[in-house]
Write a structure and sequence with these properties.
Strand order of the largest sheet: 5-4-3-6-7
Distance between the termini: 13 Å
Number of strands: 10
Strand content: 15-25%
Radius of gyration: 20 Å
Shape: globular
Structural class: alpha/beta
Number of helices: 7
């Protein structure tokens, strides 16, 4: 499997779709104020109401189902490991930005003796979950109310474009971890790359890379955190920081069996997630119209399926 610096060998004879024409093939206690459930609806998508506008992603059924694909991609990448930190018997764990709570549920199942908390801006977590798991609607960018030195493990995943002050968030994590505790973060870079010149100057991918980064910077919440998090975490005072870098192909063009599978799932990840990733950002932040976003999405989806392009992203 390719790490962050390896070139990905290309399978020129790969088939993107299954016999049925599908991309992946046939086999393949919360206590909340009622206002939190008064969601914002915009351009056909549903968004959170608590701290409205702070997060760009929808929280509707389509996006919540899409989160299962993200979870699966990380499990494929980590060979079914939920984390890399050397923890054995955690007492308290925190999952920041838990979303639908898939990672938190799996972690709570793995450690039934641990108290696990999952926090998010949206109340989209299931009512039925492991008894040692508790979901809270909370903003991790606000002052934390947990006791200091409280958690043994803090986990974050896919918070790109969501945090205005990363150093402050890492300081909160540092202050609220017990001595000997661990922080672990997994992020996806939105920037597409190619090893063989598949991305040409001026093409749709060059444009997409530019506007994705621009939208985050203009919104005051950078998308370029995968590239910077190790430096920020070390600056917060953490020791023994280890970074694992991977490449996710977009499409099943890799010769490597695992990367081919990851690539097919990642293509599906892009196609199903693209509108949710872009609609609010482009219309609210960059001033695009709904039709302009849809047109760009359609053009990019066409490029995603172009077998002559061998695009990947860092994770």
């Amino acid at each position: 499997m390719a790490t962050g610096s390896d070139r990905i060998a290309i399978d020129d004879g790969h088939e993107e779709f299954g016999d049925d024409g599908s991309l992946l093939g046939a086999e393949s206690q919360r206590s909340l104020a009622s206002s939190i459930h008064q969601f914002r609806y915009e351009n056909g998508r549903r968004y959170h109401a608590y701290r409205e506008g702070q997060y760009w992603g929808p929280n509707d059924d389509k996006m919540n189902a899409h989160e299962a694909v993200t979870h699966h991609l990380f499990l494929l990448t980590r060979t079914d490991k939920l984390f890399f930190a050397p923890i054995a018997n955690p007492i308290r764990a925190l999952d920041i930005g838990t979303g639908t709570g898939m990672w938190a549920q799996d972690f709570a199942d793995q450690f039934p003796g641990a108290e696990v908390i999952g926090t998010d801006l949206s109340p989209v977590q299931p009512d039925y979950h492991p008894p040692n798991l508790h979901f809270e609607i909370d903003d991790c960018c606000s002052e934390w109310t947990y006791p200091e030195n409280h958690f043994d493990f803090i986990h974050m995943r896919c918070l790109y474009g969501s945090i205005a002050d990363w150093p402050l968030l890492y300081k909160e994590c540092y202050d609220h971890l017990a001595p000997g505790g661990w922080i672990e973060q997994a992020e996806i870079s939105p920037v597409g790359h190619s090893d063989d010149g598949s991305i040409q100057p001026g093409d749709i991918w060059t444009f997409t890379n530019r506007v994705s980064v621009e939208a985050g910077e203009r919104n005051g919440r950078t998308f370029v955190i995968q590239e910077r998090m190790k430096t920020h975490i070390e600056a917060a005072g953490f020791k023994d920081v280890t970074e694992h870098k991977y490449k996710w192909p977009i499409g099943g063009w890799s010769q490597n069996k695992r990367l081919k599978e990851i690539g097919k799932w990642n293509l599906y990840h892009w196609e199903e997630g693209l509108e949710g990733w872009t609609m609010a950002l482009m219309t609210r932040v960059l001033g695009w119209t709904y039709d302009e976003v849809k047109s760009w999405n359609a053009e990019l989806k066409k490029a995603l399926r172009d077998r002559k392009r061998h695009v990947w992203q860092h994770v």
